[in-house]
Structures are given as C-alpha cells and as structure tokens.
Design a protein that fits this description.
The chain is an alpha/beta fold and 984 residues long. It is built from 36 helices and 34 strands. Helix 8 packs parallel to helix 9 and helix 13 packs antiparallel against helix 19.
Length: 984
C-alpha cells in the first residue's frame, strides 16, 4: 500500500466521525434551545457575605449551572440573623411579591430555618405553590414542618461525636469540653443537642456550657484552660449581654487567646481560629440540595424524593493550629484533610518534575536508538515491503492498540487488543460510530477533543493525548494515544490513524519504537517537539507564579479599601496616620470624625439596600469637598474620617468644618426619594490633641459624642475638659462592671398608699450604689452609663429578682397582699427574651404575677412601639401590672394612650409640686379623670404636704407615694416600718 493511499484512508476515517460529531452537537444544541427556561428561586435566611450562607450558595450555583438545561437562578437574602424583626419580614414579603408577580417559579431552594418558614407560609400566595428543597435544617426543624407536602431537602445532621473521638485520639488525657453557643433559639437548641449527644457517648467527659458568659469572659476562660481540655465551637452570634458578635472576628480572637485547641462544628470556622474536626460543609449541602432540584426540574415529584439524611462533613485540620499545639500529622485520623500547608515547589509539582526527568531520560535513549537506526535506514528501505508485513504481524502480538478512522465514512476501527484491555465485545458500545467517546473520563473528554481538532486543523505536527477510558468492569485505564492525519494533494482528509498504549502501569514505553518504525526521520522532529512542549510547561509554571503575585496585589488593594463606598478603610487610615506622624517634615493636621445622625432609623424604615446607597452618596459628597489636602476614609458603619493635612491655623479648620456641615444640609436624591440628613462631627488637632493615631482617633470620637449630645448636626473641637468627662464615665463604667459581684448594689423601698383603704398597697424598688472608691453614686449618674454600655441588662435582672424575692419574703412574714413596683429600661425591653426573663424570675422567686408591677416611661414606647407593646401585652395577660411613669411629660396623645398595654398612670411629681396653682390643679384633676375613664388606676408621685394629700383625696386618686408617707426605706428596715405603722 502506498503512502498516498494510507493518507487517503486516514482522511476518510477522520471526516466521518467529525461529521457525526458536528451533527450530534448541532442536534443537541437545537434540542436545548427548544426547551423553555425553568426558574429556580434561592431564598437565603442570612446575609450575603456570611460565610455559611455563601458556601451553601456557591454549592447550589455550581451544580445548577452545570445542568444540561441551565435554569434561570433568582437569589434573595432575608438578612434574618442581623434583623430578626417583623418589619424585616414585612419588607421582604413586599419585595418578593413585587419582584416575582410575573415570574413563574418552578422550584424553591431554601437555606436555614427562616427562609424555609417564609417559603412554607407564602409559596401558595406568591410563588406558584412551587416544590421546596430545604438545606441547613436539623432533625428537629424537619420534624416541626406542619405540612410536608411537596417538600424534600437535606437534613443538617449535627453530630459532634466524630469530632470528640478525633480529639481523644489526638489527646488521650482529654477530660473537659467547653461548649460555645449563644442564647438565641437556634443556639440554645444546638447547644443542648451537642451536649446530649456527647453525654450519650458515656466517655466520662465534663461538659461546660458557656452561653451565660460574655464574649470577654469566654476568651478569658479559654486563655486559662488546662491541657486536658478543649473548646467546641457551635454557632455564636451574640453574647450573654445581647451584644451582636461577628462570628469570623470572634472565632479568630478566641482561637488566638485559647490555650487549648478550638474544635468547630461547621467548616466556615476554617481560617478563623478553627483547629479542625468533623465539620459540616455548607458547600456540600448546597450541592446536594441543587442535585435534588435538578431531579424535580426533570419531572420528579418533591414529595416522592426521600429527604437526604447522610452527614455532609469533612475531616479537616488547620496546619498552622497543628504546629501551634505541637501535634504531628501522623496522630490525625486516617483520611483527614490538612489545609494551609506551606507551599513546596517539589511537593506541588512533583509529578511534573519527575515526568520531565523521565522524559529527558527517554529522550536520550531515543536519540541513541535513532543514531543506531540511521545507520540501518538504507538496508531498511531495500526491504520495506517485507518489513511492512512483519509490522502487521507484530501489531497483533504487541500490547499497543491500533486505531483507524476512515474520514469519508467516519467509521472507527480498533485492533483486538483494545477490546482485550477494556473487556468489551466488538460493537458492544457502538465504538465504530463514535460510541467510544461515551467511556472517556468526563474530565479528559474536552482535552482530547481539543488536541484532536488542533492536529486536524494543522496546528500541530502530530496528534498526541493522554486520557482515561472506562473498562467494562467499571475501572478507568490510562491510555497514551498518538496519531497523524493523511491528506490528499488538495489538503483534504483521507485517513486518520495511530496507536494507543496502556500506560496505567507505565509498561508501554517499548511500543514507542514500533510506532515510529516507518518514519524514523520524522520521529526525531517529534522528539524535538516534545522537548519544546516540556519547556512550554515549565514556562507556564513561571507564568502561574507571576499571576499569583498579581493576585496578591489585588487582595492587598481589597484589604485597604472599603468594598461598598470605594473609600480607603480603617486599616488604610491607620497606616496613613502612622506615616504622617512619623514623617519629620509633616506639619499640623486635623482629624474629622463624622457620624450620620439617625442613620439606624433610615436603615430600619427604608431598608438596608437604601442605607447602603445613601452611604455611597455620602462618600461621594465628602470627596466633592476635597481640596487636595484632605483624604477621606470610611471608618465603619455610618462613620467617616477625614485627615486634613498642612493646616495653617484654627480658622482654616473651622471653615472646613462649616463647609462640611453646610454640605450635608443639601438633600440626597436616591431614585425617587429625597433624603435630608445631618452629621455630627468631632475634631481633634495634631499635635495639640494627640501625638499618635490611637489618641487622635479617640479624642475625635469623644468630640463627636459631645456633638451628638449638643443637638446633632454640628461640629465640636476636642478640649481637655471633654477627656475629663469621658474619663469620669469610664471610671464609673469600670467600677460598675463589678458592682453586682462585689455586692455594692442595694435596694430601697418607697411605700405606695391605697387612698381608698388607707393601707399600704406595696412598694417601689429604687436602686442604690455604694462603691468603696467612689462612695455613694447617684442613680442619675450611673443608670445612663449602664444603659450605654448595656450593663443595665444584668443590673436590671438583679433588681427585678431581688425586689420579687423581697416582697415574697415580706408576704411570708404575714404581710400578705403587698405589691412591688420595678422600673424597666428600654435596653431590657428591646431584648428578645425579656418576657421569658420576667416569667422565669417570678417562677424562681415564687411570686404570683398579680403582685408585680413594671414601670415604663413614655419615651420607651417611642423607641419601638410595636415590638415593645407585644411583649408588655403578653405580660399583662399573665396578670402583671404595667404602669406608665412620669405621665404628662412625654409625647402621649389620647389616641396613642389607648393603644398602650398599661394598667396604671403615674402623675409626674412636677404636677403635684405646683398643685396650689389653678391651672396645675385643673390639669392634675383632668389626668385622674382621663385615667379612670380609660379603666386605669392613677398613682400620684411626690406627695409631700397635707394639702396635696387632701386634694388628691377629692380627685379620687387611687394611690400615692412621696415623702409625706415615707422616704425610701433600706431593705432591712422595711419590716420594722410596716410593723410600726400597723401598731400606730
């Protein structure tokens, strides 16, 4: 057979499979285009950027976007972790209703409990009653689904037992487990579930829940643990004081401060202080949920698809944490994954390096062989026909597979050895018509096709590829394929043929000599091309290193700039200030600390997206006031900082501050809304008000705080008297933190007299503080400080518990029927568990609810009327009295008053003091009448004279209190006062 004939047959063999492939691909594209797009709605419970949610979202999108019929993916975030309010839910409901009123949703994917609850409640109304696939839900959450119709999903099975076993394998002396979780509903259920499962293992471990500790107390405890302990981190987003905690930051700080390993339950703790463990993977859950969604989109019914209960976990440890605690990797459980290993060129590219060395060795061997064969070329030419026959016979007896494609018919041919190696019978997989592509490994198919087309188009001198093929037994074998296309005089394809070698055990190198037998001269060129290819691979490694360096520069840019506004961030400000101060040539400067007034109200009423857009507009307006000497930073939240350099005098600072204040008086146009805002500005000057960045920032912040107190929308320049005021507040706060533990707080009780019977109705509890250093501190001084730093939460609970215990003890002494009245702070009322806390105190002290009265000021209701009213209404239904204190000094109207869940009006002392004037007397009488008309009891405060008492009797006031009856009485003297009054 001549060379031209061989080329013609190869071209025909190649054209036929290419034509079939083109037809098949075109038909597949046509079929895909005919299918209508399906819509998938993904509802996330939490916010974008929250690691757990992002991992689930990435897993879902990864699988959905790989579907053959790509669906349209809609994604919504409820932001429920940061804003678990009814207002947020209503806003989200309106958003979904508006956006999807004309969109047919084919299936709904939800992550975590809040999104599932929303979908169950509104899918019939808003979302075409689409099937639901949930993820991030534990067994209790699934069991609580009221109607599991048309629902399936992935159960988030929380199982700490594998992690505990790993910890005991690593540290056999383990005795104590400190479990971190918060006091939210999901946090408490997760923490109890974890402790129950560890306890069920019966390993004799001591368990220490840490939900009653503040963030600082948890870190302090972890920093002093003994070596026989570990910390187990579950979910944690607020501490015991109700303070919101960023999980990543807190987990990282806890990991740094802990003396023992910090194991985690979820893999989003990795790179944030997590030592490791058997970690639940949000990405795997998202992938599994997306697989279920694809089945539903293909026609299966959600209700008939079983809920996935397999545990989606990774056994993973952090290399840096292993090094920190001197734990060798051979102590880790088998199959463990180790992240953050240091980069090693040899380990990373070991296969490539060894392959290069082996290739060069083979290259040398090939060259030696070629030198030998060149001497034999003339003798080989004379016996070419005989050699061809010998080659045909050798083909059948060798390990190599000969393949051939007739390009005119696209019919493939494989030698018998191919069937022997893979175990298939001839035509079993329709291989002659291209069916062999179906057994290619999915990861290799695209690469093989690209190399084949590259050679057929003339962009490579020969076809060379390595890929895996699935045998009949199900295992994959590696093949090294080589080939060349034969063309006719006009360049058209005749035949495409070559060979493939089973290189699974790397035993096929000898067959390369047989493959290159006919064209020894071209073999040398091919070897040279192979060397060039290896050099190209090396150059790619160098190029990848350059790309890595570019990526690091990009991450550095992100680290120093705020993502939302594009302004430099807090880290950039710190380095800018440090460089400015350390530069000897730097002159005077001023630091402006800006805080947007009432921004929280804007966020709550207009939505966080609106708030984010407003922050961007604020940054743009600040930049518009730049004169080249000022640099602007977003410090965080609604706070901005301006560094004003080369200041020539105080007048220049004042002019710039006036321009800033005036600039914010112009309204902001956001879409169809016009927003009027103001900003409070604190100014600290360098070097007069600080010689380092921390001191300048602190003093500017203090000045801004004074601007807030002075009425907002103004600027204040820092003065030393502000530091004295701030220092005094800090001294009070520091001493107040230990007031309860040091037994420095006490209660005095002022009697309340029933005007009808003349008997004592009960007492109002009034707090007193006697500090060994500060002496007696007025409540007017320390209550405000306690509210600002949220110490009012534990102090308020202590007051309520002490007062209820006192009145119950007094009842047990024979003074039955006495009531107790306790003042409540707005900070306490804003806590989610306020109602449960009050009922728990009553249960613990044994006091019946009808003997407790809670006093609330009018201003408290103005903070958040709906949420506070619902809590007080629940307590009122239990029989607890609700008194509106200082009535007449606030903002209440009669229509507003009717909506309040109160039982008593307390007339402010200012009306009683001026009762001898006709106007005040008439007003006080009207208040009593209004209260009675509304079915309320009326109590008068500050009664100090017989005339005041006589007037209040005439107006039928229900109860009175004041110095005319008694001053506030210390707790130890109350029983004696009551006994003396009865005796009198």
């Amino acid at each position: 057979m001549s060379v031209d004939q061989i080329h013609l047959r190869l071209l025909r063999s190649l054209l036929l499979p290419l034509f079939i492939l083109w037809c098949t691909t075109g038909a597949a594209h046509a079929a895909a285009e005919e299918l209508p797009a399906q819509n998938v709605l993904v509802l996330h419970s939490y916010q974008k950027g929250f690691a757990w949610t992002d991992e689930q979202s990435a897993g879902m999108e990864e699988r959905l976007k790989s579907a053959s019929n790509l669906p349209v993916i809609y994604t919504e975030y409820m932001d429920w972790k940061r804003y678990p309010t009814q207002e947020n839910l209503e806003h989200f409901y309106q958003t979904i209703k508006f956006k999807y009123q004309n969109v047919h949703i084919d299936t709904i994917l939800t992550t975590d409990d809040a999104a599932l609850s929303f979908a169950l409640k509104y899918r019939h109304e808003l979302l075409n009653d689409a099937p639901i696939i949930f993820s991030g839900i534990n067994e209790l959450g699934v069991a609580a689904i009221p109607n599991p119709h048309n629902i399936t999903g992935v159960i988030e099975k929380i199982d700490p037992k594998p992690t505990i076993r790993m910890a005991m394998d690593i540290n056999p002396s383990l005795k104590k487990v400190y479990i971190v979780y918060d006091n939210s509903e999901s946090g408490l259920s997760t923490g109890q579930m974890v402790m129950d499962q560890i306890g069920a293992m019966k390993l004799g471990l001591e368990l220490f829940p840490m939900n009653r500790l503040s963030m600082e107390q948890i870190q302090a405890t972890a920093s002093s643990l003994s070596p026989d302990s570990i910390v187990l981190m579950t979910t944690y987003f607020s501490d015991s004081t109700g303070r919101i905690v960023e999980f990543d930051r807190f987990a990282g700080e806890l990991g740094k401060s802990s003396r023992v390993p910090v194991y985690h339950i979820y893999d989003f703790g990795l790179n944030h202080g997590a030592f490791g463990g058997s970690l639940i993977s949000g990405r795997i859950q998202g992938q599994t949920a997306a697989d279920l969604a694809q089945r539903i989109l293909q026609g299966e019914q959600a209700g008939k698809i079983p809920v996935v209960t397999d545990s989606n976990v990774r056994k993973v440890f952090d290399y840096n944490e292993l090094q920190r605690f001197n734990i060798p990797q051979d102590k880790l459980p088998e199959g463990s994954e180790v992240i953050n290993k240091p980069f090693s060129f040899y380990q990373t590219y070991k296969v490539l390096v060894l392959s290069i060395v082996a290739a060069f060795a083979v290259l040398v061997a090939f060259i030696l062989v070629l030198l030998f064969y060149v001497q034999l070329v003339r003798r080989i030419r004379s016996s070419l026909e005989k050699s061809n026959e010998r080659f045909s016979l050798a083909t059948y007896g060798s390990d190599a597979v000969i393949w051939d494609v007739d390009m005119s018919t696209m019919i493939y041919y494989f030698s018998d050895s191919w069937y022997e190696l893979l175990g298939y019978a001839r035509d079993e997989i329709n291989e002659s018509r291209g069916g062999w592509r179906d057994i290619l490994h999915p990861e290799d198919a695209e690469q093989e096709n690209r190399l084949r087309i590259q050679h057929l188009e003339g962009r490579s001198s020969y076809y060379y590829a390595e890929y895996r093929m699935r045998s009949k037994a199900g295992e994959y074998k590696w093949f090294q394929a080589r080939g060349k296309v034969l063309r006719n005089a006009s360049g058209g394809y005749i035949r495409f043929a070559g060979s493939m070698v089973d290189v699974t055990d790397r035993k096929g190198y000898e067959s390369k000599l047989q493959i290159s037998y006919q064209e020894l001269e071209s073999t040398y060129e091919e070897l040279t091309a192979l060397q060039d290819e290896l050099l190209e691979q090396y150059n790619k490694v160098v190029e990848n290193q350059a790309l890595l360096q570019t990526s690091e520069e990009r991450y550095r840019l992100l680290a120093y700039n705020d993502v939302l506004s594009g302004l430099p961030n807090r880290l950039s400000l710190s380095e800018e200030l440090k460089a400015f101060i350390e530069d000897p040539s730097s002159g005077h400067a001023a630091l402006f600390f800006l805080d947007i007034d009432n921004f929280k109200y804007i966020n709550d009423t207009m939505g966080h997206t609106f708030g984010d857009e407003l922050l961007v507009k604020v940054g743009e307006r600040l930049l518009s006031h730049s004169d080249g000497r000022s640099k602007h930073f977003r410090f965080g939240g609604d706070e901005f900082v301006i560094l004003f350099k080369n200041v020539e005098g105080a007048d220049e600072v004042i002019r710039y501050a006036d321009a800033l204040v005036q600039g914010f008086r112009e309204p902001f146009q956001l879409h169809a809304s016009v927003v009027h805002i103001s900003t409070s500005i604190g100014i600290a000057q360098y070097p007069e008000n600080g010689l380092n960045a921390e001191e300048l920032l602190k003093n500017a912040d203090i000045a801004m705080y004074k601007a807030k107190e002075a009425g907002k929308g103004i600027y204040v320049i820092y003065g030393h008297e502000m530091q004295q005021y701030f220092d005094k507040r800090m001294v009070i706060e520091n001493h107040l933190r230990s007031a309860i533990s040091n037994n420095e707080l006490s209660l005095h009780y002022q009697p309340l007299l029933d005007m009808g019977s003349g008997e004592v109705w009960g007492f109002e509890a009034l707090i007193r503080w006697n500090n060994p250093v500060l002496g007696f501190v007025s409540p007017l001084s320390f209550i405000r400080v306690a509210e600002d730093c949220r110490l009012i939460v534990p102090i308020g609970e202590w007051v309520l518990r002490s007062a209820c215990r006192f009145i119950k003890d007094l009842q047990n002494q024979g003074y039955e029927g006495y009531h107790i009245s306790v003042n409540i702070s707005v900070i306490q009322l804003m806590l989610e568990d306020f109602t449960e806390m009050v009922l728990t105190v009553l249960q613990d002290t044994g006091l019946a609810p009808e003997y407790l009265e809670l006093e609330i000021t009018e201003s408290i209701f103005m903070e958040s009327f709906e949420s506070i009213s619902s809590k007080l209404e629940a307590l009122k239904k239990r029989g607890i009295g609700i008194a509106l204190d200082d009535f007449g000094t606030g903002y209440s109207s009669l229509s507003y008053l009717k909506q309040l869940p109160i039982t008593t009006l307390k007339i402010d002392k200012s009306f009683i003091d001026s009762i001898d004037t006709p106007n005040s007397m008439s007003l006080a009488r009207s208040i009593v009448t209004i209260g009675h008309d509304m079915g309320l009891n009326v109590t008068a405060e500050g009664v100090e004279t017989p005339e005041q008492l006589a007037f209040l009797k005439r107006t039928s006031c229900d109860k009175i209190q004041g110095y005319y009856i008694s001053r506030p009485i210390p707790e130890k003297e109350v029983a004696g006062w009551v006994a003396g009054r009865r005796a009198g």
